[in-house]
Write a structure and sequence with these properties.
Elements: H1 2-30, H2 32-54, H3 60-69, H4 71-84, E1 104-106, E2 116-118, H5 140-146, H6 158-169, H7 194-198, H8 222-226, H9 229-240, E3 246-248, H10 255-265, E4 270-275, H11 283-294, E5 297-302, E6 305-309, H12 314-317, H13 323-331, H14 340-349, E7 367-368, H15 396-408, E8 413-415, H16 422-431, E9 437-442, H17 451-462, E10 465-469, E11 473-477, H18 485-515, H19 532-548, H20 551-594, H21 609-620, E12 626-628, H22 635-645, E13 650-655, H23 660-674, E14 677-683, E15 688-693, H24 712-755, H25 760-763
Helix pairs in contact: 1-2, 20-24
Organism: Linum tenue
Protein name: CRM domain-containing protein
Keywords: Chloroplast, Coiled coil, mRNA processing, mRNA splicing, Plastid, Repeat, Ribonucleoprotein, RNA-binding, Transit peptide
Length: about 775
């Protein structure tokens, strides 16, 4: 019985292996999912085959019919085989609820006549590990809420932060249509403690006040107020097609520009003007100036260009006065609302002088300093006093704060003149009574303006402190020791009164001293040492020696002394130059000793004229060439020649040497060092071209570097030394000429002294 059981088990394994091979072949055709189901159902099929071999074998059809008619026996068979099978049949959870479920059709071995059908719950699980229960699917809300507590890798990158933001935006609270304001201080995650409730979430930040740059309001122009809409649209359409304009340069809208605009109005009702710096930066101000000076209306503006309309009644109003409009531009149009900044600026500049109408920045208009008087009669710089133990100089922090303050102030004056600035200085002193800082702009386009000369002139006339000076602005501070005119008057009156009191005291002291007579013994003052009498005696005794010399003799002596001093200086410089030349020559000799030029081979190949002409034309057509630099001929150049000769027979060497003798010397050196044949030397537009032929019997050398030539570093050092020696010799020659000229002048002075009878320096 035991042996029969073993036989049954062996047959069982053999049939299992056979079915496994067939099922795996079928699974390759129907896909991976069908393969898994076939492997699971194969167990039951193997058990049926087992009993069909060892029982009395009836016909196959009757066995299948009996087994299909008696499902209980088939089930028992499955259960009996399940004890020995390591892959048990897993009951399906839907088998009880669905008894009439559709059966699965299983492929059978070739000896089974007919299909085998099994229920889904009778399929076997071939995996060794037990099946794990599947997790329930998460809803969209749970996934969104999980983004708050889930771990994110790489939270410092931009991608990770954007992912966090997207996950927060997908929260249920953020998906509402209406905005909801959440108080982050009262928000909590299921905690009832007051401390946890007051804690803010990591992504919640305090609200910051963001000040966005307000868009500039569109300015309603005079043309939009006066002209009809249809006429304005027609004029703008014509203006957009205009291609001829009047160029407005840095000086602004001058009389020449006005005349050109009016001449353009004679043939066309529109005139186009194109602005340069600085008016192109403020086209609103440019429009006001053009309308003010021409009397027209600006109908179209584009970038740095604008188009002016002459008006309907141009013939009547073209000669009307513009001076009335200048006052309106300075003090504002009666219907226009002026800002506080402009009103205060106009009040500060009132009475200082005429305004500059062509001002390229926003109002208030500054004072035109060029129209102020050049000379003010009786002008004197203001008196200055500072308190005792005070420091009139500015510290660095004070200077910085004053510059920051001057940045926001309006411009007070516009200047285009370098000298004669007394009128401007007088106006600045008047301005300093109300303001500590005077801000002066320099006019654009005025020729020969020197801001340094302007600043020095104003400092001398006003005594102020210069805060800033560049090609655009000059800013002057009145200083800590500045005294206003009223205070200066009081101080001067007080000083006059004190001086008068001192004089009264001195006069009374003299009267008291004259009333008292003191007798002095003359024997006590008998010595003359250090007295006036001693000085007069010395003058009477030795004064003739000094008077004997004339003025021209003194000039000759002074000139001679200067020449001797300059001669000593030049000789010292010449000695230093000669020492430098000697040291450089010593180093150059040491380098030249390491360079042993090669000699030309006596047995060289001979080229005919036709061959030379052929090689010359080939070299002229070559694009590749070898450039010879300042180092001259060294081992790297010879190696480059060999590299060129590897691919072609002719090489072209370009040198930038100026003299033709140097070029010939270089060509012969290359011919001797490389072993090639010099074809020709050609003149180029820049430099010369040396053409070398490698020869008919050329063989590529095994060693490229020549031991008798200098290296690249040594060649550069040699070139620098040669250049240095040349420049030192040039300066030494100049020193020698200067010394020769000085000695000749000194000899002439000595001869003139000898003629005048002065032989003092000749004896020395």
């Amino acid at each position: 019985m035991v042996s029969s059981t073993r036989d049954i088990s062996s047959v069982h394994h053999q049939s299992n292996w056979c079915n496994w091979k067939r099922v795996s072949a079928a699974g390759l055709v129907i896909g991976s999912l069908t393969k898994i189901s076939i492997l699971l159902q194969m167990q039951c099929n193997s058990s049926t085959t087992l009993f069909s071999f060892f029982l009395p074998r009836p016909p196959t059809s009757s066995f299948i019919s009996s087994s299909s008619s008696n499902p209980k026996s088939f089930t028992n068979c499955s259960q009996s085989s399940n004890h020995n099978n390591p892959h048990p049949i897993l009951p399906s959870p839907d088998s009880h609820s669905h008894p009439n479920a559709a059966t699965a059709r299983i492929p059978t071995p070739p000896w089974v006549k007919g299909p085998l059908r099994l229920q889904p719950h009778e399929l076997a699980n071939l995996s060794n590990n037990p099946p794990k229960p599947r997790k329930p699917l998460e809803s969209a809300e749970e996934k969104a809420d999980k983004a708050l507590t889930a771990k994110e890798s790489g939270v410092r990158g931009k991608k990770a932060m954007s992912k966090i933001v997207r996950s927060i935006e997908t929260l249920p609270g953020n998906q509402q249509q209406s905005p909801v304001v959440v108080d982050s201080s009262s928000f909590s995650l299921g905690s009832s403690d007051s401390d946890d409730a007051n804690k803010k979430l990591p992504w919640v930040r305090e609200e910051k006040v963001v000040r966005y740059r307000l868009k500039k309001d569109k300015v309603v122009t005079q043309a939009e107020l006066v002209l009809d809409q249809d006429l304005l649209e027609r004029l703008r359409a014509e203006a957009a097609r205009m291609r001829i304009w009047v160029k407005v340069k840095k000086l602004g809208v001058t009389q020449r520009v006005v005349d050109e605009i009016k001449s353009a109005w004679e043939t066309n009702e529109l005139a186009m003007a194109k602005f340069d710096l600085p008016l192109c930066r403020n086209m609103d101000r440019a429009r006001e100036i053009v309308e003010l000076k021409t009397g027209g209306l600006v109908v179209w503006t584009w970038k740095d260009s604008l188009v002016v309309y002459r008006g309907c009644n141009y013939e009547v109003a073209k000669n009307s006065g513009i001076s009335n409009m200048v006052d309106d531009d300075i003090y504002g149009i009666p219907g226009e609302e002026l800002s506080l900044f402009q009103r205060e600026g106009d009040r500060l500049l009132e009475g200082l002088g005429p305004r500059f109408v062509d001002w390229w920045m926003p109002k208030p208009l500054p004072v035109d300093a060029d129209l102020l008087p050049e000379v003010v009669p009786g002008y004197m710089p203001p008196s200055r006093r500072w308190p005792p133990y005070g420091r009139p100089q500015l510290k660095d922090t004070e200077l910085t704060s004053l510059r920051k303050l001057a940045r926001i102030l309006p411009t007070h004056f516009v200047l285009g003149r370098n000298r004669r600035l007394q009128g401007l200085a007088f106006a600045i002193l008047k301005l300093w009574q109300n303001s500590n800082i005077a801000k002066i702009a320099i006019k654009w386009g005025v020729p020969n303006t020197d801001n340094e000369q302007m600043a020095n002139e104003l400092k001398r006339l006003t005594g102020g402190v210069l805060l800033l000076r560049n090609k655009f602005f000059i800013i002057l501070y009145r200083g800590k020791d500045y005294l206003p005119s009223e205070v200066a008057t009081l101080v001067s009156e007080r000083e006059t009164e004190i001086r008068r009191c001192h004089l009264d005291e001195e006069s009374s002291r003299k009267k008291a001293a004259d009333s008292v007579h003191i007798v002095v013994d003359p024997s006590l003052n008998s010595s003359k040492t250090g007295t006036l009498d001693e000085f007069r005696d010395i003058q009477n005794k030795f004064g003739g020696l000094v008077k004997g010399k004339k003025e021209n003799e003194l000039q000759l002596e002074a000139e001679k002394a200067n020449l001797e001093r300059e001669l000593r200086i030049q000789e010292r410089k010449l000695f230093i130059l000669e020492m430098k030349i000697e040291n450089s020559m010593r180093e150059l000799t040491k380098l030249n000793s390491e360079w042993v030029p090669a000699e030309n081979d006596a047995d060289r190949e001979i080229l005919t004229d036709e061959e030379r002409e052929c090689f010359r034309k080939i070299a002229q057509k070559l694009r590749s060439s070898l450039v010879l630099g300042r180092r001259g001929v060294f081992d790297g150049v010879v190696e480059g020649l060999y590299q060129h000769w590897k691919h072609r027979e002719v090489v072209k060497v370009i040198t930038m040497q100026r003299t033709f003798t140097q070029v010939i010397y270089t060509a012969k050196s290359l011919e001797a060092e490389s072993g090639g044949i010099l074809v020709s030397v050609e003149k180029l537009s820049k430099g010369h071209a040396i053409i070398l032929y490698r020869g008919k019997n050329y063989r590529r050398p095994q060693k490229f570097h020549s031991e008798n030539l200098l290296t690249k570093r040594e060649a550069l050092q040699r070139s620098i030394l040669m250049q240095r020696i040349g420049s030192l010799k040039f300066f030494a020659h100049q020193r020698r000429q200067a010394i020769t000229n000085m000695r000749s002048e000194l000899e002439q002075l000595q001869k003139s002294e000898e003629r005048n009878g002065i032989s003092k320096y000749v004896n020395q």
